[in-house]
Amino acid sequence: MERPPVPSALELQVKARPLPRHVGIIMDGNGRWAESRGLPRLDGHREGSVSVREVTRAARRLGIPAITLYAFSSQNWARPAEEVAGLMELLREYLESERSEILDNSIRLNAIGEVDKLPRYVREPLERLIADSSHNTGMVLSLALSYGGREEILRAARGLAEAAARGELDPAQLEETDLESRLWTQGLPPVDLVVRTSGEQRVSNFLLWQLAYAELCFTDALWPDFRTDEFLRCLSQYQGRERRFGLTSAQVQREDPPQRAKA
Ligand code: FPP
């Protein structure tokens, strides 16, 4: 990593308050960013990679334990072939260019989604970096690749049904944790905050199970314009929220809510 920038007042303020344990980000608006400049959509995705680097660095500096970036959805395969190919090539370049940064900064790379659907030239460097960074403990950076929340839940449900059919579990005894342990996010901290850029206010099949009690931050900034300051503003918004987990405000203020440890 280059010499860290001098932290802004906002960064110092955000760092001093409780941070989310896990931030999910829907990186939207690359296409619009490019089109508004008369550029090919892929240039927007390329500029978006710069935001990926900045936001990852900021999260690591702040000490956020986990971030998950929605880089390619299950549904994105249906985009024009040229755009899909361009995105795959960008991912390959990213895995090469960020390799030393990830390893040198104790970041553990992880992937969630149907990774086996990725072309070999992405899957191989991805799996290599996941393996090589597997002992890092500074932060988990998960890339959601060929990821869909419904697909994830369906896969977990299928696993449970198969286990029940084999007589290994009793459907009447099923707990939330049984399903959770079959999600791709198994082992990651609970998602406390989901950010979506570009002014759209929907979740688009991202972390559907996990965001049950997550705080949501919607910002108008297009992803290529979403840099450290925008990220800090979302974190600061999060820090100003009262998380109630179904309790009343008075209960939450009286004591630490019992669900907090879980959700
Ligand atoms: C959504 O914007 C963005 C994507 C489908 C791809 C996100 C990819 C990157 C940010 C770059 C590569 C990723 C990594 C991890 C290096 P959109 O194209 O739907 O934007 P639009 O709604 O303005 O058309």
Describe the structure.
42% of the residues lie in helices and 14% in strands. It is of the alpha/beta class. The chain has one domain: Decaprenyl diphosphate synthase-like (Undecaprenyl pyrophosphate synthetase). Strands 3-4-2-1-5-6 form a six-stranded parallel beta sheet, sandwiched between helices. Helix 1 (9-15) crosses helix 9 (228-239). The radius of gyration is 19 Å and the shape is globular. The model has no long low-confidence stretch (mean pLDDT 95). The structure holds farnesyl diphosphate. Farnesyl diphosphate is lined by residues 27-32, 45, 48-49, 52, 69, 71, 76, 87, 90-91, 94, 143, 198, 223.
CATH top level is Alpha Beta
Shape: globular
Number of domains: 1
- Ions and ligands: farnesyl diphosphate
CATH topology: Undecaprenyl pyrophosphate synthetase
CATH homologous superfamily classification: Decaprenyl diphosphate synthase-like
The major sheet is characterized as:
6 strands, parallel
Order of helices and strands: HEHHEHHEHEHHEEHH
State the share of residues found in helices, binned by percent: 40-55%
Low-confidence stretches: none
Strand order of the largest sheet: 3-4-2-1-5-6
What class would the helix/strand composition place it in? alpha/beta
Average predicted local confidence, pLDDT: 95
What are the SSEs and their pairings?
Blueprint: H1 9-15, E1 22-26, H2 30-35, H3 41-62, E2 66-73, H4 81-97, H5 99-104, E3 107-112, H6 120-132, E4 139-147, H7 149-165, H8 176-180, E5 193-196, E6 215-218, H9 228-239, H10 249-254
Parallel strand pairs: 1-2, 1-5, 2-4, 3-4, 5-6
Helix pairs in contact: 1-9, 3-4, 4-6
Farnesyl diphosphate (FPP) is lined by residues 27-32, 45, 48-49, 52, 69, 71, 76, 87, 90-91, 94, 143, 198, 223.
